[in-house]
Amino acid sequence: MTRVRAEGALGRGRDSVRQQWRDARDRFVASDPGLTRLRHGTRAVVATSTTVVLQAILSTAAGAPRPAALMHVMIGGIVALNLATTLKDTRRRAIVTTASAAAGGAVVGAASSVLADPWRPVALTVFVAVTFLAVWVRRFGPRWFTAGFVMWQAHFFGLFLHPPASALPGILLAAVISTAWVGLLLVTILARDPEATLQRTVTALRAQARSVLSACLDVLADPASESARRALRAHLIKTSEVALLFDGQLADARALPEGVSPLRLRQWIIDLEIGVDEVAGAVVELADRPRDDAASAVGGTRHTEMAMRRALTELGWSRFDEARMALAVLRQDAHWGEHAARRFVLGGDLLLTSVEDWNSGTVLEQARAENQPGYQPVVQVSGDALPGSAALAGKAVALDAEHWWSPGRMAFTTRQAIQAATAAALALLLGDLISPGRSYWAAIAAFVTFTGASTTSETTRKAIDRTVGTLVGLVVSIGLAHVTGGQHVVAGALMLLGIFLAFYVQALSTTWMICLITIVLGQLYELLRDYTEHLLWIRLAETAAGAAAGIFVTYAVLPVASGDTLVLARRQLLTTLADLLERVGGAVRVPPSFTDRATIYREVVALDEAARQLASAHDSLIRPRVFDADHAGRRHRVAVLVVCASAARSLVQAALALPADPSPVAEDVCRALAAEARRLADVPDLKDQRPTRADAPGIAGEIAEILSGTTDLPVVFTRRCRRLADALGLLSPRAR
């Protein structure tokens, strides 16, 4: 007996280790869909290190003196680093064109800094002008973002190094050689394979789905745990983001095998996402049931929970036969009375079928059979990353364009260019008060604050993150200086490692990126024999001054209010929801054609993107809890709106599965839900709505009344209609 128990304990231990290893692997794969961040860090290290070596070899061969050679190496390295990490093109011709534009930008930036450097007032004026130009050219697309950024960095380092005018030809040649070399790397050994990237994204999506299933098990293990529920919601949001990334990657024909239709793959990804949502929703619904013994004995809740646990485990381990058996158990009378069990089975079947269809190649065969033109991506991915809030913020400020003098009539990039130039000028003034020779460190902090940030809250967060990251990096650099002092090989290796990690975590945390960059700079000072702790503290002070300048300007000069962006995101979501429901209402009345179905699925993805933008706009807010009385209410409304998007996605799938001649009630329900969504979109502020009249049933009551007139519709369709109506009803206060 003791031996049996020991073997059982050992077996459970092995299973626990396997599960923990699988969960850790899934978290790693899902955290970097398509291995985008890994490739980003690798490009940064390879481009920078090889360029530095190349510049050193060429300078030595040309017989350049050590100061000139060092200058060429530093200019070449910084140009290579910025070009490799900002160039988003994937086609060879486009890469060559962008590298050529960046070469022109580097020449302009370096030449203007060297020529203006002897006269400080002129240098400051040119610096502000270059800052404006570097941001203004972003209006022409990602290619010009890269060219402008490289131009600004070349100008900055020209001012930082103070080279004589006689060194200008060598510096310009070094900049051109660096851009040419990085362009060559990006079309050869660092070239991106779109098909392999798409396959890796599918792997990340499946890993993310398994993470959702694991989080579901945690919720069932401790239904009262709010942290477990938050983790589940976070995994669901991440699943939606990976699905949107997949949808955007489908726009590149090179990502697909010959003859495969992206339209069918879009439907597949939506079905998989619905399956994940339904399984998670069923788990939360069951976890909300009473846990006392009497309720469990009567309703069979605990037995259903055990059966659900088994199904989740089999689904998570991709044991398909066992998973189907576990789902069959939930279909038995002992469990089928639970609505959560029925919902779980439907979602589990859809998830299981989607994964099996992909593994067997059925999806690709179907995609070849119905290869139809007309695919339109909802999101334009850039460098395998989802777009930020710039487009949404631009629409928000454009709404304020009633008068000819209104700032809303100004192009959004012009707005940002004015802000960046003003912040740079103010940062230079503040930086001069700290250290006249290092004031450009304040300017770079102010400039970078406006890169990738569109609203007041985003800019403020980035400025704070940059300052905190600099402080942490400074403390680490001081500690490392005592270890790597005189150890040039170790310092160089730490610099390469720091560059890789900095750009690997760039998409995750500005704080840690800046921390790592600060460590790299500390090691660079050590190699240049210019290291002092006082110098690093000056850099921290200059960074704080630049961050303060950026924060002041973002609120004082042509501000883009975060609240306005959030309101527009909410209206955009509800309007997209109304359009989708109206189109679905027409589709249930008349069987939709292939084009109609493709349009509906595209609008489903558009609704997902609107929900992502809404959640992102809310998360970026600076929320002082003492003064923000509506903090909890706004967070609740955003969560409800995201639930509305998820419920509508499931409703669309049920509506398209209706028989050929459904009851006219189906169209009436979709129209009523669409009308309510459109009404809510027109409300200026949801928190200011008045309670519903006592004699008004609200949208939930209205839908219940419409559905009471028929019994011909499938239960799945009616329940999903009620679920969406309940969610929309939460956005309208009820009468007391």
Structure, described:
There is one protein chain. The protein is an all-alpha fold. It is 76% helix and 0% strand. It contains 29 helices and no strands. It has helices at residues 2-31, 36-61, 66-86, 92-116, 120-136, 142-161, 168-187, 194-221, 226-249, 262-287, 293-299, 301-316, 320-330, 333-336, 339-360, 362-369, 390-398, 412-434, 439-449, 456-484, 488-504, 510-527, 533-556, 562-589, 594-619, 631-656, 665-682, 698-707, 715-729. Helix 5 (120-136) runs antiparallel to helix 18 (412-434). The termini are far apart. The model is unreliable at 4-13 and 293-299 (pLDDT under 50).
Main pleated sheet? none
Q: What proportion of the residues is helical, as a percent range?
A: over 70%
Q: Looking at the structure, what is the overall shape?
A: elongated
Tally of alpha and pi helices: 29
Class from helix and strand fractions: mainly alpha
Report the end-to-end length measured between terminal Cα atoms: 64 Å
The mean pLDDT is 86
